[in-house]
Design a protein that fits this description.
- The chain is α+β, with helices and mostly antiparallel strands.
- The chain has two domains: about 80 residues, Glutaredoxin; about 130 residues, Glutathione S-transferase Yfyf (Class Pi), Chain A, domain 2 (Up-down Bundle).
- It is built from nine helices and four strands, in the order βαβββαααααααα.
- Strands 2-1-3-4 form a four-stranded mixed sheet, covered by helices on one side.
- Strand 3 and strand 4 form a beta hairpin.
- The radius of gyration is 17 Å and the shape is globular.
- The two termini are about 30 Å apart.
């Protein structure tokens, strides 16, 4: 049995959860909030979620987890079969996570948690997000999925991260950093209509209040 450890408000957790559901892999969920929880270091050396527990062996970081899932369940592939198609799928994942989600994370304190970010941070993030959005528009295919004609790990990644990037940038910068990406809004509606994506989103919403309570206790 695979145990997915983390919490349903985490976009990286939801990236992995959606992949597990789409591949039809049986798993259990274990609620773990990483903040102030040094006990998880044994399983996740950076103290982050998600991580998997498989027969007593821990595996952390969302992208290696996806690679593991592809190896254990090759009959339901979420990478294209051809090497270049698979590489382009991974390229999209990198663009979304390194050049959109990662810089947008600098806005989360203000967008979601009642904090404030400096004007310098706003300017820096705005520049990086604009560059990332241009890269996304160049690489995304929307045929109808982000990497081509078949649902892939790039879709799990995009659905988990891009709405958060849009929300945070609009809240803090006053404009959706992804508004210029033609076809993105319709694409996200397409993914949101999938039953497994609906489950992920429903359980994300249900986890918001418990997560907020955990932050108040921390």
């Amino acid at each position: 049995m695979i145990k997915l450890c983390g919490f349903s408000v985490s976009n990286y957790y939801n990236k992995v959860k959606l992949a597990l559901l789409e591949k039809g892999i049986s798993f259990e969920e274990s609620l773990i909030y990483p903040a102030g929880n040094p006990a998880i270091i044994d399983d996740s050396p950076m103290g982050k979620v998600p991580y998997l527990l498989v027969d007593g062996i821990a595996l952390s970081e969302s992208q290696p987890i996806l690679e593991y899932l592809e190896h254990i369940s090759p009959g339901a592939p979420l990478y294209p079969a051809d090497p270049m198609g698979a590489a382009k799928c991974r390229e999209l994942i990198q663009i979304v996570e390194l050049y959109l989600e990662l810089p947008a994370r600098r806005l989360y304190a203000e967008a979601f948690f009642g904090g404030r970010v400096s004007e310098e941070t706003r300017k820096e993030v705005s520049v990086v997000l604009a560059k990332g959005a241009r890269a996304l528009e160049k690489l995304a295919r929307f045929e109808p999925f982000i990497a081509g004609t078949a649902f892939s790990y790039a879709d799990c990644t995009a659905y988990a991260h891009l709405p958060v990037v849009s929300t945070a940038s609009q809240a803090v910068l006053g404009a959706d950093a992804l508004a210029s990406v033609a076809g993105l809004a319709d694409y996200l509606k397409l993914i949101a209509a999938r039953p497994h994506a609906q489950r992920v989103n429903r359980e994300r919403k249900a986890g918001l209040e418990p997560f907020a309570a955990s932050r108040r206790r921390a």
